[in-house]
Amino acid sequence: MLVFHEQPHEKVRVFVDFSPGQNNFKRVIPRAFFWAGKRYDIQSVNLVYQRRRGNKQDWCFAVSDQANAFVLLFNPENLEWILEEVQGQ
Amino acid sequence: MQRIILHFDMNSYFASVEQQANPFLRGKPVGVCSTMSRRGCIIASSREAKTFGVKTGCRVDEAKMLCPQIKLVEVDPPKYRSTTENIVRLCKEYTSEIELYSIDEAFLDFSGLIKSFHQAETLGQIIKTRIRQEAGEWLNCSMGISYTRWLAKFAGDTAPKGGIVIVNPQNRLTYLKGRDLQEAWGIAGALASRLNALNIFTLDELARYSPINLLEVFGIRGYKLWANVNGIELAGLEQRKIPKSIGHSHVLRKRNRDEKFHKAVIMRLAERTGRRLREMNLEAHGIYAFMRAEGLGDFGVSRKVFQPILTTWSIYRQVLEILAPFLKKGMPTFFALGLFNLQPKSDQLSLFEKPKSLNLVKALDIINNKYGEETIVQGDLAGLSDGHAPDRIGFRKTVGLDD
Ligand SMILES: [Mg+2]
């Protein structure tokens, strides 16, 4: 069975909490985002990692709500948030 | 000073990182596959998938047969690499002597920093806890603590998943007792049968066997086997420090205007540089080329590049691009080329590739390593006689690939 998987690559509006945390998980915390007219409240930030784009690095936030897992990508060059991936159950 | 080395191995690493990223996958059989197609293969499987017999190397359709409910996700190297970096970063707070053995395995040398194996175990527990807190709560590892690198890895490899095993001089023989030879790091099928022929079936039998006999039968390799199980350090930590640059140069004995010959020399230098780059599992983001020509003086350029340089061909092509205008004008007497801004390959998956999927470049390196330098060479090297840009003494067979 394949995991239900979508790669929207869409710019999204994200509410983010910036905190002086000890590590990657706690410093930048996406709290909610809007996608396709719906608000998704993030329950947990599960993994924070970097992905190379040319010679630049984007930050990826693997997050989840009650029903789905998402990857939100933050581009530090243009300060844009992109919804990269949606994994359903 | 008591040497104290800790080895850790992340359990079902790629699959665990995927389960970390997506909590809906936790506790479920997960297969990380090379591509989603039916012919793709499983690169890593979760603990849950392993109970169904889904192993690394298994084809996707096979995996689905073994475990119809398996969740398949496509491999995503940046996730694993980034997570490994986080883990290594926190380990560096405890010792600067770290050998990253693979993307999910490392050795930490605590010698001189702590006094006992018991303290190492406490440190191990702290590191395990911090990995869960700071890299991801789903990430678990097995640890081995001992007084040589080999025994530490052996202890780690044989530790229960998520556990810590200490092998010290007192319990070493008891720990080895009755264990099959093939449980040991570096002893596989054929070697095991040859040892069996000497009536050695278990690791403690190997440890008690005469090292002289082993040396006679297997040469230095036999002695190494014996030393490893007896806690004699042979290797120490291999810290893979990344060099600032790698390159090769050559003074031309024959001076002429034969561009084909010059290109062949450059190709040979590029080939050597490329091989070293690949042996060290690095990629380059900078390249330089330099030449001296009679009457024209020196000419050289170094440049940074966005696209990682990985292959001999790309080195050759870029060096030629730099030197081309100059190559035509004078009579070259010296060439130098090299790479800088070196970093670990962004596709560290090569560590897990099965031989059948090795790419051509790597296959050529293996053949050359086995049968001698330049057994197989790139097209431009063919026809170049010996004595040009030699870096080793010995006989070389030169065979062209595409002439
Ligand atoms: Mg592992």
TrEMBL record, chain A:
<protein>
    <submittedName>
        <fullName>Uncharacterized protein</fullName>
    </submittedName>
</protein>
TrEMBL record, chain B:
<dbReference type="GO" id="GO:0009432">
    <property type="term" value="P:SOS response"/>
</dbReference>
<dbReference type="GO" id="GO:0046872">
    <property type="term" value="F:metal ion binding"/>
</dbReference>
<keyword id="KW-0234">DNA repair</keyword>
<comment type="similarity">
    <text>Belongs to the DNA polymerase type-Y family.</text>
</comment>
<keyword id="KW-0460">Magnesium</keyword>
<dbReference type="InterPro" id="IPR036775">
    <property type="entry name" value="DNA_pol_Y-fam_lit_finger_sf"/>
</dbReference>
<dbReference type="Pfam" id="PF11799">
    <property type="entry name" value="IMS_C"/>
</dbReference>
<dbReference type="InterPro" id="IPR050116">
    <property type="entry name" value="DNA_polymerase-Y"/>
</dbReference>
<dbReference type="Pfam" id="PF00817">
    <property type="entry name" value="IMS"/>
</dbReference>
<dbReference type="InterPro" id="IPR017961">
    <property type="entry name" value="DNA_pol_Y-fam_little_finger"/>
</dbReference>
<dbReference type="InterPro" id="IPR043128">
    <property type="entry name" value="Rev_trsase/Diguanyl_cyclase"/>
</dbReference>
<dbReference type="GO" id="GO:0003684">
    <property type="term" value="F:damaged DNA binding"/>
</dbReference>
<dbReference type="GO" id="GO:0005829">
    <property type="term" value="C:cytosol"/>
</dbReference>
<keyword id="KW-0227">DNA damage</keyword>
<feature type="domain" description="UmuC">
    <location>
        <begin position="5"/>
        <end position="188"/>
    </location>
</feature>
<keyword id="KW-0479">Metal-binding</keyword>
<keyword id="KW-0808">Transferase</keyword>
<dbReference type="InterPro" id="IPR022880">
    <property type="entry name" value="DNApol_IV"/>
</dbReference>
<dbReference type="GO" id="GO:0003887">
    <property type="term" value="F:DNA-directed DNA polymerase activity"/>
</dbReference>
<dbReference type="GO" id="GO:0042276">
    <property type="term" value="P:error-prone translesion synthesis"/>
</dbReference>
<dbReference type="InterPro" id="IPR043502">
    <property type="entry name" value="DNA/RNA_pol_sf"/>
</dbReference>
<protein>
    <recommendedName>
        <fullName>UmuC domain-containing protein</fullName>
    </recommendedName>
</protein>
